[in-house]
Amino acid sequence: MKESKSKPNISIRIDPEVLHQAKVEAIKAKKTLGQWLEEAIEEKAGKEKGSIAGEKSEVATENKEMLTPKEGTKIDTSTPPSVISLIKQRR
């Protein structure tokens, strides 16, 4: 997190109970509310970015497995197979 001399003031709408919880957590961490919220947002954004990358990886692996023929299955390579035909051959 970069510290700058002046940051713009912004307004957001937030549930008062959630704001209170954030203030309590900021006090416990000995940080300002702004510092605590910045860190919480960065942490959440990082987790979601990693989660999305992980999901893409899982989908790619699943697709590769679906398109890879089972051992002993012969695929006609004279014409490119459709995804549906590959899935049917796998079953």
Give a short overview.
This protein is mainly alpha-helical.
Question: What's the topology here?
Answer:
Blueprint (H helix, E strand, L loop, with lengths): L15 H13 L4 H35 L15 H8 L1
Helix pairs in contact: 1-2
Would you kindly provide a written description of the structure presented here, covering whatever features stand out?
The chain is mostly helical and 91 residues long. The chain has one domain. Helix content is 62%, strand content 0%. It has helices at residues 16-28, 33-67, 83-90. The longest helix has 35 residues, at 33-67. The protein is elongated, with a radius of gyration of 25 Å. The termini are far apart.
The shape is elongated
Q: How would you classify the helix and strand content by structural class?
A: mainly alpha
Number of helical segments? 3
Give the SSE string: HHH
Radius of gyration: 25 Å
Count of folded domains: 1
Count of individual beta strands: 0
Strand content: under 5%
Query: How many angstroms separate the termini?
Result: 51 Å
Helical content class? 55-70%
What would the average pLDDT be, to the nearest integer? 76
Low-pLDDT segments, ≥5 res: none
Described by strand count, sense and barrel closure, the largest sheet is:
none
